[in-house]
Amino acid sequence: MPAQIAHILHGLSCAEEVWPAGTKSLLHEGAFFLGCQGPDIFYHNQRTRPSGFLYGARIHRWGWGKFCSTFARLALGEGWKKEDPGFAFLAGWVVHGFLDRSLHPFIVWFSGWRVPSDPSTEKLARSHAFFERILDVLFFEARQHENFFHCDWMSRLGKAEDFSQSFWEVFAQSLWRTYPGAYGYDDALIRSQNAVRDAVGFMETSDPQNAKNAVSAAWADREDLAGRPAWGSYPRIALFHPGILPPEDFLNRQHGEWRHPVGGEPHSESADDLFDTATQQGGEALKLLAKAWEAPFEEAVSLLGRLEILLGNGSLNLPDAEGVSRGPQFSKPWDFEHLMELQRRFYLKE
Ligand SMILES: [Zn+2]
Fold first, then answer.
1. pTM over the 0.85 mark
2. How far apart are CA 265 and CA 256, in angstroms?
3. Ligand 1 centroid to residue 226 C-alpha, Å
4. Domain ranges of the chain
């Protein structure tokens, strides 16, 4: 899956397809930014207990369409307006999975993965997370025509307090109805609140406008590397955006061949091509959602049925033709040891 900035960029591109006159007037921006993170917010729930981490894995594996259409139907029943932060959150959430599905094979091919039993893959610890952050920087600069470190989106994210009691109830009901075996309803409500709080905290930690935490991460990595064997450690710098990159074609704009990490089929799309495909799909989904909000309830319910089909319930990770998640076999990773060391030098001004 791509990281936080790419998901917001994608969300904004999708919204432009539906509301060209200005997304800000229709959407509660901070809630939309947060909603664009989709089920990734549960992966960021690593501090506050009880955690909703399990929902991150479940939603990425199955049921994205069902979850979103249930959420939308309940929200309509509660009378949410388009100006409601809850609607903005839902709009962001609805497009998230398209970017995941589109870019994930590309990211896995170019970042590889660490195999705990194979020390030769140690240099790939957190390579996936770091490659996502390379894409964040390159996508942002190409699309916003601005230096990445001027991006102030992390300080504009919505907060848990922005949402109404009705929002939390709808969120928890949708989780509970889609994944009844995971937790009870009351539990789902607390876990979703904890996930939103932790996700906002996590994203603020790596705010591009505040390098303080990246510098600390670089220092801590240095101490780790000096003090004990690198084996089994996780480079902290990987969770921060790169400040310096060699002039490599990380986005594959030259259309070189890469292969699907599961089946090995050849591809030549650039990351931009994949982003644009996901924007088209996300734009269609938002159009349906917006239409449902204007339709009488009966018609809205049928439009949301179409939305579920459009989103699909298959995996957001590495789906096969049936949408079932598969483990990767093939990759050709960049030299992440070198790329991450470049960032340590950059942040420590060496
Ligand atoms: Zn995701």
1. yes
2. 14
3. 34
4. 4-347
